[in-house]
Amino acid sequence: MRRSRAMTVVGAVLVGLSGPSVWTAGSASAALIERGTFHDEYSQLSEDYCDVPGLTVAEAGVADGRYRINSHGPDGLVYNFDHADFKDSATNVANGESVTSVGSYNGGEHRITDNGDGTLTYRVKFMGNIVWYNENGERIAQNTGQTVVEFLFDNAGTPTDQSDDQLLRRIGVVKQTGRTDDVCAAVVAEIG
Fold first, then answer.
1. Where are the alpha helices (DSSP H) in the chain?
2. Which residues contact 69 (CB under 8 A, 6 or more apart)?
3. pTM of the model
4. Which tens digit of pLDDT belongs to each residue from 37-77?
5. What is the CA radius of gyration of the chain?
6. How far apart are CA 110 and CA 160, in angstroms?
């Protein structure tokens, strides 16, 4: 299975604590490249978590879902769409205290711009719901709604082949609607 860019980008969105958000279908001339299901387990160690100096957090999670990859338009640029259900944890490595988040999302590339300089700007749209819980199972934060984020990728000279692309930077959130709690404040209050 090809790992879709949407799963890569969703990681960037979730790590940024922006909350997930709907990709809208492209034109009828879209060509299906691939579709399937995925099971993804991931983990990372985050230092200065939520910009708190010295707070090191072990993050881990699992996502199960399905994906679709299509090419669109005259340039044949590749668009991804994912749907997933996931469960994540964030544990303070110093004291062992943790929180859990559970959610689901639909999302993927909404628009791709070939910048003509070897880079592509991806506008990614996600819709979903994430709820964070403390160790007692009490809800401490929730993000529900839609988030649109832009990313800049180096296309490695092959704009229609995402396998060699490199994420240069997250440009930022373009639009966010719905409930957006201050997740960092809630998580740090629980585990910090």
1. 5-15, 183-191
2. 2, 4, 32, 33, 34, 35, 78, 79, 80, 81
3. 0.72
4. 999 999 999 999 999 999 999 999 999 999 999 998 888 99
5. 17
6. 16
Residue for token pair 């299901």: 37
Residue 9 three-state SS: helix
Q: What gap in Å lies between CA 99 and CA 104, rounded to an integer?
A: 17
Distance CA 123, CA 11 (A): 15
Measuring CA to CA, which residue among 96, 77, 70 is closest to residue 160? 77
| Per-position b or e across 171-185, b if 16+ CB within 10 A of its CB | eebeeeeeebbebee
Side chain identity at residue 82, one-letter code: D
In sequence order, what are the beta bridge partners of 137? none
How far apart, in Å, are the Cα atoms of 46 and each of 28, 56, 58, 118, 145? 42, 6, 6, 31, 26
